[in-house]
Specification:
By secondary structure, this protein is of the alpha/beta class. The chain has helices at residues 37-48, 56-64, 70-89, 103-116, 130-139, 149-158, 178-184, and strands spanning 26-30, 52-54, 94-97, 120-126, 167-170. It has a 5-stranded parallel sheet, with helices on both faces. α2 (56-64) packs across α3 and α3 (70-89) runs parallel beside α4.
């Protein structure tokens, strides 16, 4: 891992850290809505100088074109996997921002990493404080595509446990998780 010059306070600027300098890697975020996945994915993408590919906008686009139900969800994951494969083929690391609630969705990233010959790093994000998680869900601007708290609870009930190596990040803890995430990505 290489790093940039120290910040004025003597610490290494996490934005200057270049994990994966030995080659590209695929970073797949997973976790329920409103736990902080997207915020962390953007920060990791910036630190890696890597594209961040969120699944949600692809799902919304498919919905706008009349594709509704379960099929568009997996189609969105497939579309993002296709885009990620192109970026990995260009020698870039890629950060995927998705709920990844079931093994079949997460399997796409394992298959892609194997095909591309790159390491896969899974980061599961959760908010260990249920009241804070609810506050985050309910504080979002109203949007027909964002789940309510009740819908989030249903998704939590359907969320399949992740089996295998991963970094688990609790965004309810009052410390910046970025340094730990970047260390995991080495």
């Amino acid at each position: 891992m290489s790093s940039g010059p120290p910040a004025p306070d003597g610490r290494v600027d996490p934005g200057a850290v270049r994990p994966g300098a030995g080659g590209p890697l695929l970073v797949a975020f997973a976790g329920l809505p409103a736990v902080g996945k997207s915020t962390l994915a953007v920060r990791v993408g910036a630190a890696l100088h890597a594209p961040v590919l969120p699944v949600d906008p692809v799902e919304r686009a498919l919905h706008r074109y009349g594709l509704v139900g379960d099929v568009p969800g997996m189609a969105a994951y497939g579309a993002v996997a296709g885009l990620a494969e192109v970026q990995l083929g260009l020698g870039l690391s890629v950060v995927v921002d998705a709920v990844n609630p079931v093994a079949s969705a997460r399997g796409l990233w394992h298959d892609l990493a194997e095909r591309a010959g790159v390491p896969l790093r899974v980061i599961e994000v959760h908010c260990g404080d249920e009241a804070e998680h609810r506050r985050r869900v309910e504080a979002r601007l109203p949007d027909e595509h964002l789940p309510t708290w009740e819908q989030t609870l249903l998704r939590r009930a359907e969320y399949e446990p992740i089996i295998g190596p991963r970094l688990v990040v609790d965004t309810a803890v009052d410390t910046d998780p970025l340094p730990g995430i970047l260390a995991y990505l080495k």
